[in-house]
Amino acid sequence: MGFMDFRLIYMKSFFEKLTATNNINDEVDDILDLDNPNSDFSQLTEEEKDGELAFDVIDEGDALVLKTMVAGVKPDDLDITITRDTVTVRGSRHEEREINKESYHQQELYWGSFSRTIKLPTEVDIDRSTAIEKHGLLILNLPKVDKERKSTLSVK
Asked: What does the longest C-alpha to C-alpha distance in the chain come to?
């Protein structure tokens, strides 16, 4: 198993961090030790260390709808990049005040940066795409490119 395969299997997803889902990640946190400068995993880029968003991708015929939870994130702290075939959502969730680590009895909420790039199943019209946030749910509406559309051109 290569380094990246190992990282993909054992890195906690944003959803796991958000919901405190227990799995093998809890048992290998000490092995990975991403903050240890002597660890191979300390060489990951910041994006690779980010939490990862969980997405729903829904095909509504003429558009794709993507949904993800971004509760506790200010709209100004979100960066959404769209190409014709990918969507990237980056952001960060900040704790409002600094809390000493020794004060925690239990810490399950995820604080910090997150990102996710989704490869879309079809091309979308980036100029007509919209994003709204409602009660912590980010909803992206991405109209599909009409590949059957035809037009005639006049020669001048």
From this structure: 75
Which structural domains are found in the chain, ordered by start? Answer: 3-143 (2.60.40.790)
- 3 state DSSP class of 11: coil
In whole angstroms, give the CA distance from residue 117 to residue 88.
4
Alpha-carbon distance 82 to 126, whole Å? Answer: 6
Predicted confidence band of residue 128 (pLDDT cuts 50, 70, 90) = very high
Lowest mean per-residue pLDDT among 32-46, 48-62, 115-129: 32-46
- As beta bridge partners, residue 142 has 64
Is this prediction's pTM over 0.70?
A: no
Give 56's strand partners.
67
**Tens digits of per-residue pLDDT, 50-72?**
678 889 999 999 999 999 999 88
9: exposed, middle or buried (Cβ count in 10 Å: 0-12, 13-18, 19+): exposed
Q: Which two tokens stand for residue 111?
A: 């604080």
Locate 51 and state its tokens. 């939490």
Q: Please answer whether residues 122 and 144 qualify as being in contact, where contact means their C-beta atoms are separated by less than 8 angstroms.
A: yes
Q: Who contacts 109 (Cβ-Cβ below 8 Å, separation ≥6)? A: 17, 18, 20
The single residue listed with the structure tokens 């997405």 is: 55
